[in-house]
Amino acid sequence: MYVLLWTDALIYLLVLVVIGFALYARRWEHLRAPWREVVQSRLGTGAAVVLFAYITIGLLDSVHFHPRLKGEDAQAAEPYSTEVISLFDVIVAPLREHVEKTYSAPFATHLYARETIELPDGREVREYPRLQYGGAHLQDPASDRIPDILHTSAIALVEALGVWLFCVVLVVGSLARLAGKTMQDRVRAIVSRRTVVPWDVILVTSGMLIACTFLVAHLGVKYHMLGTDKVGEDVFYQALKSIRTGLVIGTLTTLVMLPFAILLGIMAGYFRGWVDDAVQYVYTTLNSIPGVLLIAAAILMMQVYMANHEDSFTSLESRADIRLLFLCIILGITSWTGLCRLLRGEALKLRDIDYIQAAHSFGVGHFSIITRHILPNVMHIVLITVVLDFSALVLAEAVLSYINIGVDPTMESWGNMINSARLELARDPIVWWSLTAAFIFMFGLVLSANLFSDAVRDAFDPRLRMART
Amino acid sequence: MIAYIIRRAAYAIPILIGINIVTFVLFFVVNSPDDMARMHLGVKRVTPEAIENWQHERGYDKPLLWNGEAPGAKRFIDTIFFKKSARLFVFDFGRSDSGRDIGYDISQRMWPSLAIAIPSLFIGLLVNITFALLIAFFRTTYVDVSGVVLCVVLMSISGLFYIIGGQYLVGKLLNLVPISGYDSGLNAIKFVVLPVIIGVIGGIGAGTRWYRTLFLEEIGKDYVRTARAKGLSERGVLYKHVLRNGLIPILTGVVAILPLLFMGSLIVESFFAVPGLGSYTIDAINSQDFAIVRAMVFLGSVLYIIGLLLTDISYTLVDPRVRLS
């Protein structure tokens, strides 16, 4: 049974907006040119491929439903489970379902803590019990484990190589078809980096991603690749699930704030006078309040509200989801001011430029001037701000969750993973895998977003463009 | 100049009023004092008397804006808005929900915050400017490219990683300094070193990259070409001309955040258990002490506005082309 969460709906909307913009931009050369430049930058393209992988996982994780019950319960009047899972959960079902008792190290076969085990002959010993799933297929874990890991990885890599070669042939073939040249010619062009689009970067990056996917598919079923956490959940699964949270915070916040920032910023710069004063007053006031404190105050207030209206939230998921959305809105309120000020300044400059003066003297209305002449000329600022803000927001989520004013504690997010794992550093031997996993996944997303946004900024910022020529 | 400063300061008043209204709405209108009492006392099994008692102790039992029962001017004064929000204007923060004097707490906790924030800022500034000049000196070479990539990589690492990693490495593995805590007087140094170092390292990526663009922008200008044309060495150009002009935006940026140093860093302070204002705020958030959060919101806003004012003034001081208007 399909479930539509609020953030899901907004994500679909965002995807539609992006697709719509892409279709629109295709028709105009002046919009295509900067994007072509983005694609040509090698770092930017590589980062885009990684980002694409993250986004794919995030999108798969945004289709939620109640699964159909199995076995006897399937005959009930409502044959659906109460829990909400996503399409992504179905794909990585083994990761999700392999729950151990408590901590276990990456690739471990035994639990992290000693337990009292009753032997068949009635004696009791304290030792590390075997894991229920991790390495359960091994006869003698001590000697078989490493050969088995190597063997499985080798199989995975060979399969990955096969799939990758297939993809390469497909890409090169279609490129040759389009250019009307032979395959050898195209291969030579790609290897010697003579193609316009850096296909070598794309193919190598996606090759690595494919390899990672196959490694996970093979090893993840047999072992806990990044260990398990306190309640025995697979850390790798948590880190993957956190991708959606990070992406939602990074993108929906912008989606929420954009209309305000654009509308108010342009109006302030264009109309000047009392409109300008009012808008400036609003954003200076909001900006003066320290962002973290405003978020904290708002989240505290929402907690009070939620505690007093418990019955209006049907499930844990919808509760966590509303909190996530609310966090996005609050983050949006604290972060729209920067963009608003930039747009005001730009609109102030544009309104005195000749072509807008000319439009005025032809009697064009304010609305048409704003939508047809000013808006298209400030879009590059909007775009640059959006991509630059993304990584900052992803990082902010971790910090906010650490002070308990971030996403709901029941929701998987990197911030929550770090928050719950940081106390375990005091243990001996330390439990390092949860922290490491969260940091690595976050680093991957933020780094690729940063590199991509650099490429976008270089291509779109006219000032930089002039400086380079 | 004085007239300008007074006028600018006068602009701050409506903004402060606005902030006050926002906090008032957020804390008292969106959620009534009733809700807050329930939150504190537990939602279930709470008697109306207990709620009333809780509100009375903290002065939340008065009407919000208008006290119709009281005589004369007390109609305004004997309300929550006047007692709790308007009193903030004279920096009377009142008592926290647990009964402590907030003003006293702030004056005590200010110093540890400053002891960490000030060295972090200035050492960070020095380090970032040095690296940025170095990269600018080697512009368009591999040093430049790899320097920028390194900055992006450093920027992409979560601040939490620097803190946790630093604590683990320096405090636990190497056992050089205590991991957390604080002491009075000079004894505090051994507690301050690690947070400062981590603060500096965490800021290198973004800072260096930003300053590099500023310096490169200056290098492209005509006066630099003139300086080279008259035979100045590259070092002379960088130190005498580029550095000085590049420092203008850097210093005005620093001036803007100077007042906010009082607030301390939320995360660093709570990780290192420093009894500063940052950890004070975090503790208040975690224990849901609305009075403290309200006071800190107001204090932070005032400091931010002072920062804005200082920025404007410093612009006119360092750059005579900016007119007082």
The low-confidence parts of chain A are none
Instruction: Please tally the helical runs of chain B, counting DSSP H or I stretches of 4 or more residues.
Output: 14
- What is the CATH-assigned architecture of the domain at 2-64 and 234-468 in chain A? Orthogonal Bundle
Helix coverage percent of chain A: 55-70%
Shape of chain B: globular
- Largest Cβ-defined interface: A-B, 44 and 50 residues
Corresponding CATH superfamily of the domain at 2-64 and 234-468 in chain A:
MetI-like
Describe this structure in words.
The complex is a heterodimer of chains A (469) and B (325). Chain A is mainly α and 469 residues long. Chain A has a domain at 2-64 and 234-468: MetI-like fold (Orthogonal Bundle). Chain A is built from 17 helices and five strands. In chain A, the strands form two sheets. A three-stranded antiparallel β-sheet of chain A has the order 1-2-3. The longest helix of chain A is centred in the middle third of the chain and has 39 residues, at 141-179. Chain A is globular. Chain B has 325 residues and is mostly helical. Chain B folds into two domains: 2-90, no CATH class; 107-323, MetI-like fold (Orthogonal Bundle). In chain B, 71% of the residues lie in helices and 0% in strands. Chain B is built from 14 helices and no strands. Chain B is globular. Chains A and B meet through helix 10, helix 11, helix 14 and helix 16 of A and helix 1, helix 2, helix 7, helix 8 and helix 12 of B.
Brief sketch in words of this structure:
The complex is a heterodimer of chains A (469) and B (325). Chain A has helices spanning 6-26, 29-40, 42-60, 87-91, 93-97, 141-179, 183-191, 199-222, 235-271, 273-288, 291-308, 316-350, 354-361, 366-402, 414-421, 433-460, 462-468; strands spanning 2-3, 64-65, 85-86, 115-118, 124-127.
